Amino acid sequence: MCNGLILVGNWKNRGGKMYWQSEYECMERGELELLQLERLQATLNRVARNVPLYRKRFAELGIDPYDVQSLEDVKRLPFTTKDDLRQNYPYGLFAVPLRDVVRMQASTGTTGKPTVVGYTSGDVRRWSELAARILTAGGVTKDDAVQIAFNYGLFTGAFGVHSGAELIGASVIPSSGGDPRRQISIMQDYRTTALVCTPSYALHLADTLDELDINKTALSLRFGLFGSEPWTEETRQEIETRLGIQATDNYGLSEITGVAGECLERAGLHINEDHFLAEIVDPQTGEVLPAGAKGELVLTTLTKEAFPLIRFRTGDLTTLIDAPCACGRTLRRMTRIPGRSDDMLIIHGVNVFPAQIEAVISGTGLTDPHYQIVLDRVGHMDLATIMLEAPESFCTDSIKISQRIVENVRIRLQTELGVAFEVRLVEPRTIERNNGGRIVDRRKM
Amino acid sequence: MQPTLLSLKNMDVFYGRIHAVRRATLHVRQGEIVALIGGNGAGKTTMLCTISGLIRPGQGSILFEDTDLAHRSPEQIVRAGISHVPEGRLVFSPLSVEDNLRLGAYTRSRFRQRASIAEDLEIMFTMFPVLRERRTQAAGTLSGGEQQMLAIGRALMARPRLLLLDEPGMGLAPLVVKDIFRHIVELRDRLGLTVLLVEQNARSALKIADRGYVLENGRVILQGTADELLANRDVQRAYLGRELEE
Questions:
Q1: Does residue B97 lie in a domain region?
Q2: Which ipTM was obtained for this model?
Q3: Residue B119 lies in a domain
Q4: Which of A5, A152, B179, B201 has the highest CB neighbour number within 10 Å of its CB?
Q5: What is the pTM of this model?
Q6: In sequence order, which residues have a C-beta less than 8 Å from that of residue A168 and are 6 or more positions away?
């Protein structure tokens, strides 16, 4: 059980809470597993009844939810892949009628079609509770002013943290994305104490502070919660030093929100296991790997009403940590995500698959285009460039036409993927033809 | 969080060839009021009868604290601390109110607990004053609401820690139902009793419950806090008689 006596750092003085829902975060493992089984069985009964994909697939494989008698039995169920989501765009996987859905968020998908994720009012409420847990674990209390510098929009990031912070009773500043100078003046004027954004944006803010010659001590920042792209321990140290904060990592997907977050021990992310069942599988064979092995994270939602997913392949590589954490939570941890099992790129915190870029370029009417995706980091921000080879028949001297092509590709990438790319037209036959060279990622992780 | 008092794991129950309960997994914590809701034939009553030993489970475990009840007799189960208030109340009509209550203490009579039984009788009369008024009257002459109080009082006489209540509001006027439900909350608050409640009237049940499970065709399809279930549109449509167009 939770030991309320473990106090870390300055919690006591701030009147903070160690846990948001200690009854779940510190649940005895046996009870937690029974709760997981209860919720898993109910979820399976619901998807088998309400979601055609699962009904059909279970029938094909001769699986009855009835056969799942233990958490181990989940192994016998089929995976759900991003491709399944794409094929069921937009509402095919919803387990409730649309009129029960109170919110839609979307993610990018593998071929330009995004995935639409619906939430019932209960889902939204649980999502807020989970975000409140993650924020509390990262040090946030009702006394904090939380600046959320994620883009508010269809892409999921901002909203969960926003309502979670409100639930805690913190003062929420929805500063959204944009000009770092504006962010910094808000941070100074509003006396922001906690910052939520991507780690690269945090470093970008640190650079801007340097440019403006503002000392970090002029800020009131104490905590930073960073997510939606992979980052390293070195980056964490750099952020902590340059902004003078304690920085924690958190993890969620646009398909499955509120999955995990670090506590101030900063030694792995606690998975909200009462709401998600986590497995680690071999990315190639799909075989479940033994405890402590590194592999692809597979998640099953246990409480989602509108958009339940069974054994969803996240594509993220990690390891589960069984050992208890010094913070007192009994929720198992996962190591920080060092990489992916597929070719997905994360640019400005947005997930982009090369196939999406290809689809956009092919859609612009160029015949058999050759191109290269070049990713750089300028300062701490991603710079994505598409080097597009002009067709041989094409006279690059015609500036007008080439400008039109470049502009066309640029705008379509921006509107369809939500990411700004630089587009450059290069001479015919100047891009290497081997397949491995299509993506050049020069960003240092 | 209170410790778990009762937990069912993968409980299967057959009624002849009918598979009445299909792998139900659920738990009840000490001091909780937990509601089982669902339509007719969903398996709610079957579930209670299986817990109290009136029906044998086909498979699965029923843990009451650390004891597996799956193969115990109803008598042993009452002694272990579980009392069942059956659907339709089933008071012994020709017997007096007091005799009905005393029969509830049947399992205790052989332990020379006469004094403590008298004490408990007094507690019942204090809690349900109408039963004192009708003390010598035949139970069959009581109104429906009074019979329900008697049935609850009779179950309490066995000094249970877990009370199984099957449709306590059935066939009663709304005001009477309200009164019965108020009593159920009081039992928990004053006597620290844990309650597993089956009720067609899902709204009243969820209003007093901490958590609930929704059964459909013998399967648990939803579980959560009472607030969550009350806010769930599926539950609202199916069991709370509320349509969106309302």
A1: no
A2: 0.89
A3: no
A4: B201
A5: 0.85
A6: A20, A132, A135, A136, A140, A141, A142
